[in-house]
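Side project, low priority. Logging it here so it doesn't get lost.
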Amino acid sequence: MAAGPMRERLAFDKREDLSTTSPAGDGHGNVEGAWQEQFVCAARLEPLRGGEQIVADRLAGVQGFRVTIRNSIQAALVTTAWRARDARLGTIYNIRAIVTDEKKAYREAICEAGVVT
């Protein structure tokens, strides 16, 4: 894929693991802390068919996206426990699945915007 379609700037965030600094986490039973930015890269965002899900007995709109980034050492670390964030607009994307293409040149993630993290 040429650089042209990769017009977006996405930051990939990972939750801070409080259990490594203190076995009890934050003292209130929480072992996950705030989101920490790991890296920012160029990406291609392709909207998928939208959907709806029920959250707290209310209907919420969910928009799916296919996110494509170049494969790298940093990109190989991304898991479904991470999130993607639009570095310009601040939109949050929950990562639902990640695959590497057959040539191992790109990583594709299926993400959702409009859901609670």
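Brief comment: The radius of gyration is 16 Å.
Revisit when time allows.
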